[in-house]
Specification:
Blueprint: H1 2-8, H2 11-21, H3 34-44, H4 51-77, H5 87-96, H6 111-129, H7 135-140
Length: 149
């Protein structure tokens, strides 16, 4: 690795990178240990991910997006989420979600409980929306809320 770096760059050109990666210990590439040389090498010659790894990463992103879409759809249906304002949903997630964190911080394996919670909220909302003059009934039928006076 050291030879490949020196073939591509001069010692003077590598001096600043050596200084940064050695945390100010040295600017000379000959004084670096193998771990520091490997860091510099990977900085200039990054490893390309294999096609299968790239495909798996893309599939995980799609799966995560689909799970988030399920939650957002239910939250929007029950009136908890407005596409222009994430604040009410974020407040709900921090206070009442199973893991007490906002939606983008959930991992794929943590969505089971959250989906269960939102499906339960949706079924309760649908039951409550059938009863006239409840908050859910007003929301579902898009009526303005009556004055509390």
């Amino acid at each position: 690795m050291k030879k490949k770096l020196l073939n591509k760059f001069s010692k003077a050109a590598l001096e600043e990178s050596c200084w940064i990666k050695s945390k100010g210990r040295t600017g000379d590439i000959d004084e670096l240990d193998t771990a520091e040389i490997e860091l510099i090498y990977n900085m200039f010659f990054p490893k390309q991910p294999k096609a299968s790894e790239f495909i798996n990463q893309q599939q995980e992103k799609i799966r995560l997006r689909d799970l988030q879409a399920i939650i957002l759809k239910d939250a929007q249906y029950i009136g908890l989420h407005d596409p222009q304002d994430f604040a009410p949903l974020n407040n709900f997630m921090i206070k009442r979600s199973p893991l007490k964190k906002v939606l983008p911080f959930y991992k794929i394996d943590e969505f089971d409980e959250l989906i269960k919670q939102f499906k339960s909220l949706r079924s309760k909302y649908e039951k409550e929306a059938k009863v006239p003059y409840t908050k859910a009934w007003y929301h579902k039928n898009k009526f303005p809320k009556p004055s509390s006076n």
